[in-house]
Amino acid sequence: MILIRTLSDEELKYYSRMTDFENHSSKTDSDTEHRYRAICNCETKMVGPLVRALWSTTRKSISSSSSAYHSPSSYLKPFLHARAAGISRSFSVAAATAAASATAPGGALDPNRLRNVAVIAHVDHGKTTLMDRLLRQCGADIPHERALDSNQLEKERGITIASKITSIPWKENELNMVDTPGHADFGGEVERVVGMVEGAILVVDAGEGPLAQTKFVLAKALRYGLRPILLLNKVDRPSVSEERCDEVESLVFDLFANLGATEEQLDFPVLYASAKEGWASLTYTKNPPDDAKNMSQLLDAIVKYVPPPTASLDEPFQMLVSMMEKDDYVGRILTGRITSGIVRINDRVHGLRDSDAGVIKIEEGKVVKLRKNKGMVSFDVESAGAGDIISMAGLKSPSIGHTVANVEVMTALPTVELDPPTISMTFGVNDSPLAGLDGSQLTGGKIGDRLLAEAETNLAINVIPGLAESYEVQGRGELQLGILLENMRRENFELSVSPPKVMYKIEKGVKLEPIEEVTIEVNEEHVGMVMEALSHRRAEVTDMGPVAGNFGRTRMTLTCPSRGLVGYRSVFSSDTRGTGFMHRAFMAYEKYRGPLGNVRKGVLVSCARGTVTSYALVSLEPRGTLFVSPGVEAYDGMIVGEHSRDTDLDVNPVRNKQLTNIRSAGNDENVKLSPPRRMTLEEAIGYVASDELIEVTPHNIRLRKRYLDSNKRKTMSKRPKE
Questions:
Q1: Are 395 and 332 in contact (CB under 8 A)?
Q2: Are strands 114-121 and 199-205 parallel, antiparallel or unpaired?
């Protein structure tokens, strides 16, 4: 394992050679870099990761400076003097010494020097920003804010979609940190990684307090026996006072008690922080001293309160797979925490899974690669020991929830229990008249292969093959399934998607449906409108009151069926003029609450195929809200707008002006149309009714009727609904 350490005698010689040629070289960055590269090429036998890291830092310092030139040797002198005097540097040398002393026989780290910690919180309470500051505190090079959100969709939307694992050295220990999503739709990511850790940092916004997803992630942590560290974030805000922090701490304590926490878990440590400013404190403060504006106290608290993994290096190797990804070169990469033993390159291992008939051997193979994340870098290691979180390659069949162990071990580890999916959608082949014009992945077989591959890496999604090359995809919410659809769009897939359906249960002859807990905060003038809309969706208010520190704001807690919340987020944003926020989390299955009220109006359906014209849209504008603009292709059965009434209306959006040879004044005036309503994928998923479909292509999102022929639609509308 490559570890940051003190400078060796060889490296001192390396640096002295650099200094010699710098004294005789022209003081330009390009010349210095060329000479540095020449030395690197001549001395490839030397161990130089630290040298290159220091040189990278030196280059950044040089390029960012607008003053006189400073040679790299001037930046490296403090490190050389520290080596000569035997003094260790705060991050690199101390961490290296600790890592060296923590190494157990066989090359693995001593489990007592490990800490496995998950960062859990409600959405937008500052988890990923906190991880950035912790990485910077321990010397990692962070290229930009929210560096761990590396997925393209995560960068675009500003949310965390998948859990990320990295390690940071601190004093005599190595901390494996797990950043988790905050949205309820991605709760499966929290459930599958919380079993890998022995501790958790519960981040709570000191202004907002604990919300719906806070309760969900905390319940998962307490179920696994973790003792969370409470971190009150954003205390630097003007509206946050010491009294408010005490109030939030009491609310969190009540939440612990209501979730059945033990006496030890109720005695949780509390820290105050501003992740944006990069500091944490054991006592309440808004402006700590300059020498205390760092994350040292939080890192010390992790080492103090999070227990090391209870694992033995002497037992045979076993690891439960918690995450999986695919690589074009090494194949399937399995990630998990090693429960016992040591694993090395070229070890013979096999995959196991538990079944009703007993333990089944999936595959036997050889470990061809071991990888570990440190900071923002992933590097290969020769071995890893019990308690550590590691990624390995070499097996093709095992997936999440399976056990990888030495060949003499035939015992499978217990798997992670996940909450059941709450909604389902049907993915099928795009059979519209415009099919095949945008994408290249069109067939049912390719769609099925892509969905089954997704189900392998994401346990919160279930895929069930259906009839006529269709697949039922079950998940936690429309946001999760919308992310899957967006990824497939970018991979050039074309498909048709049905509206979401709720997963019902029948127990003792009683129909049960998923109920979610909803937290809403709005201005006082919008309370009546929101309450009326939710009453049509079978919501029930459980708590309501003013928001502390925000005059004129009201917070409501409700329980609402999942089917009632489908498509409500866009309506909520419109009703509150973008000033309210709404968060939801799955609560339980309860008795069916009856049919929903009128939650949507009818639609305008095209009855002709062709190019949409301005002339036709002028006469359709008074009928409702349009979804299309002139020049767009339309076809029979395509939805082109929302009707102002509750019934559907067939219209002709492709009608052209009839030309004659008689000229009349005033008939050729310029046409002015209102901008059409453009729907995002998530809005379309929440908008469509049971007799409609979404046509998803790489460049377009269209709404259409399930049956394109108007006569067929009339016939099917007379059939009784399910």
A1: yes
A2: parallel
The answer to whether the beta carbons of residues 635 and 575 sit under 8 Å apart is no
pLDDT at residue 639 greater than cutoff 90: yes
Q: Which residue has the higher pLDDT, 142 or 116?
A: 116
Whole-number Å distance between alpha carbons of 101 and 95? 10
Q: Which 3 state secondary structure label does DSSP give 231?
A: strand
- Map 106-134 to HEC letters: CCCECHHHEEEEEEEECCCCCHHHHHHHH
* Residue 494 near residue 436, CB atoms below 8 Å: yes
Both tokens of 493, joined, read 């897939």
* pLDDT tens string 508-560: 889 999 898 888 989 988 998 999 889 888 999 998 988 876 778 898 999 99
Find where tokens 């040298």 sit. Answer: 51
pLDDT for the residue 356 = 79
Query: Is 50 exceeded by the pLDDT of residue 566?
Result: yes
Q: Match 């996940």 to its residue by tokens.
A: 418
**Average pLDDT score over residue span 108-117:** 83
In this structure, what are the phi and psi dihedrals at residue 474, rounded to the nearest 5 degrees? -105, 135
pTM (2 d.p.): 0.75
β-bridge pairing 270-274 and 229-233: parallel
DSSP state of 294: S
- Over the stretch 447-457, which tens digit does the pLDDT of each residue have? 999 999 888 88
Q: How far apart are CA 112 and CA 209, in angstroms?
A: 34
- The single residue listed with the structure tokens 């709720």 is 502
pLDDT of residue 20: 45
Q: Which three-class secondary structure string do you get for 143-205?
A: CCCCCCCCCHHHHHHCCCCCCEEEEEEECCEEEEEEECCCCHHHHHHHHHHHHHCCEEEEEEE
Phi then psi dihedrals of residue 152, to 5 deg = -60, -40
* CA-wise closest residue to 339 among 437, 244, 263, 409: 409
Q: How many CB atoms lie within 10 A of CB 492?
A: 14
- Rounded to whole angstroms, the Cα distance separating 656 from 611 reads 10
Question: Are 22 and 72 contacting, i.e. CB atoms less than 8 angstroms apart?
Answer: yes
Look at the alpha carbons of 434, 438, 442, 447 in this order and tell me if their dihedral is positive or negative.
negative
pLDDT at 109: 74
Please calculate the CA angle 567-129-51 and round it to the nearest 5 degrees: 140
Q: What is the DSSP string of 480-495?
A: HHHHHHHHHHHTTB-E
Chain center to CA of 257 = 28
The amino acid at 286: K
Q: How far apart are CA 718 and CA 710, in angstroms?
A: 13
Q: Taking Cα atoms as reference points, which of 456, 474, 550, 553 lies closest to residue 514?
A: 474
Residue 638 carries which DSSP code?
A: B
What whole-number distance in Å separates Cα of residue 406 and Cα of residue 364? 9
Query: How far, in Å, CA of 518 to CA of 537, rounded?
Result: 12
**Nearest-angstrom CA–CA distance, 50 and 3:** 9
